[in-house]
Amino acid sequence: MPLSLQIIAGLLFLYLLAAAAVYVFQRRLMYNPYTHVNTPHRDKSPKMDKVSIETPDGLTLASYYAAPKTGKDGRLMPTILYLHGNTGEAGDAAHKLIPIVNAGYGALLLEYRGFGENAGKPTEKGLITDAAAALDFINRQQDGKARVIYYGMSMGTGVANGLAAIRPPAGLVLECGFTSMTDAAQYHYKIFPIKYLIKDTFDSKERIKSLTAPVLFLHGERDRTVPVEQGREMYETAPVADKTLKLYPDGGHINLYDFGASDDVVDWMNRHYS
Q: Is 121 inside any structural domain?
């Protein structure tokens, strides 16, 4: 075999080997429970109780909950179900809930299976199951009177949209959300045919088409993890009239709260639910 063909054959073999590795180890690449999300606010948190959430497939998820206060209308204020991203543990995002809890809203900071101290292995189906179990927990705590807003961040937007497609929310907040995990992965692994390799697609663009609740999109224009174009596309796809897109010119993927996102979320909630 000519040397040139040997080189091509060798490169093709290495490419196929790399593609096979992406396929086999993709969930290790997608879910990173042992690496913390380091921000200047990571050690800050609101007052929340540690709770146990039972899933239908037999897992116990250690999570955190703050009950809502009673609003001016005599009803319980809405509760945020916070669904964090693919890296770190729930506590890394607790600081985001401080202004929400301080404003009287409830919050449940869900820790997924396989993250934190929780048993199990994360998958798309498993995380949506966890979110549904958290929603059931909130409803039990509030005697079926809960109004729940799903708040997803990054991968958590895929979980939030997955839950919203089967259990409609009172509202939806999507921070740094993708159109699908397929699209987000393809953005980073351009040389591989991701749509033929990926197992957990988190097809948010398709799922959001059934949304009927108000939705707030937050995205940094300097986001290098999920490009802002995907956030804009999700905004355009959402079928509801009551939708808001808030862009942060200097914002990246994990620092939107340094640019006033906390105030924007609370203001949006106050306009819709207080």
A: yes
**pTM passes above 0.85:** yes
Separation of alpha carbons 179 and 170, rounded Å = 21
Q: What is the pLDDT along the chain (274 residues), one digit of tens a residue?
A: 676 777 777 677 778 777 777 788 788 888 988 877 767 676 678 899 999 999 999 999 999 999 999 998 889 999 999 999 999 899 889 999 999 999 999 999 999 999 999 999 999 999 999 999 999 999 999 999 999 999 999 999 999 999 999 999 999 999 999 999 999 999 988 988 899 989 999 999 999 999 999 999 999 999 999 999 999 999 999 999 999 999 999 999 999 999 999 999 999 999 999 7
Q: Rounded CA gap, 188 and 49, in Å?
A: 38
**What is the domain range of residue 89?**
31-273
What is the residue whose two structure tokens read 């997955």?
Answer: 162
